[in-house]
Amino acid sequence: MNVRTLCLAILNLGDSTGYEIRKLSTEGHFTHFVDASYGSIYPALNKLEVDGMVTSREEIQVGKPARKVYSITDQGRAAFAEALTRPVGKDVFKSEFLLLAMNAEIMDPAHVVRAINAQIDYLTSELAIIDEAQGSVDMEGADWVAEYGRTCIQVSIDYIKAHRGSLEAIAGKRFGEYANQAAIAAE
Predict the structure, then answer these.
(1) Which parts of the chain span the membrane according to its record (predicted)?
(2) CB neighbour class for 79 (10 Å; exposed up to 12, middle 13-18, buried from 19)
């Protein structure tokens, strides 16, 4: 999948501005699918318009600049449906927390405890986002995706809580060694 397909997916649910597409792709229902920035969304929308996949219109706003609203065309819907039939890429998962956990033995134990607590808080906030968004898109598949996401996040929370003691026990085992090396390097 790419930004182009993401734009078509969002427009398939209804008309949107580039700003709204960006917001949905970073804070909304489409957060976990494709990374999209303003720098990639607007060129994708322009190309989609040139290719006849979307149309745009300007809407006048009182006291504000006009906004450009995009709509998907029948050709765009067909292209979107076709894009969904292509083999999907591998899921991408990156976690700074896991890098920290992998190196817990060289870290101050107090920092590891704070990081564990922060990760649990972050994952809990992600669950709240899913709960808030659930049911706001009229698609049965969206509910399935929400449940999948909720399950993955809840398993992560449960694992961290059940095994935090073992990570805390690793924390700091080599901290003094690294702290001494840093002090020597600073001299």
Answers:
(1) none
(2) buried
